[in-house]
Amino acid sequence: MILANPRQKTLKHINQLIKDIEHNGCIHGIGNPEPLKGN
After folding, report:
1. CA 33 to chain centre
2. How far apart are CA 19 and CA 12, in angstroms?
3. What is the pLDDT of residue 3?
4. What pLDDT sits at residue 15?
5. What global pTM score does this model have?
6. Of 26, 28, 33, 35, whose CA is between 20 and 30 Å from 13?
7. Contact 17, 25 (CB under 8 A)
8. What is the C-alpha to C-alpha distance for residues 39 and 5, in angstroms, rounded to an integer?
9. Which runs of consecutive H residues, i.e. helices, occur in 1-39?
10. Cα 27 to chain center, whole Å?
């Protein structure tokens, strides 16, 4: 059994987020998007 490298898994997830942002914009999509709060 070969275990996945944690960095490789993180990199794959980051790439999925970037592709989703390019396709759906930064307001909708995976990753629990929400507007910034504060001033």
Report:
1. 10
2. 11
3. 66
4. 92
5. 0.60
6. 35
7. no
8. 40
9. 6-24
10. 13
Amino acid code (one letter) for 30: I
Taking Cα atoms as reference points, which of 34, 8, 30, 6 lies closest to residue 18? 30
Any idea how long the chain is? 39
The span from the CA of 1 to the CA of 4, in Å, is 10
1-39, pLDDT tens digit by residue?
A: 566 688 988 999 889 988 988 988 877 778 676 777 876
d(CA 8, CA 39): 36
Q: Are 30 and 18 in contact (CB under 8 A)?
A: no
Give the burial string for 10-21 (b: 16+ CB within 10 Å, else e): eeeeeeeeeebb
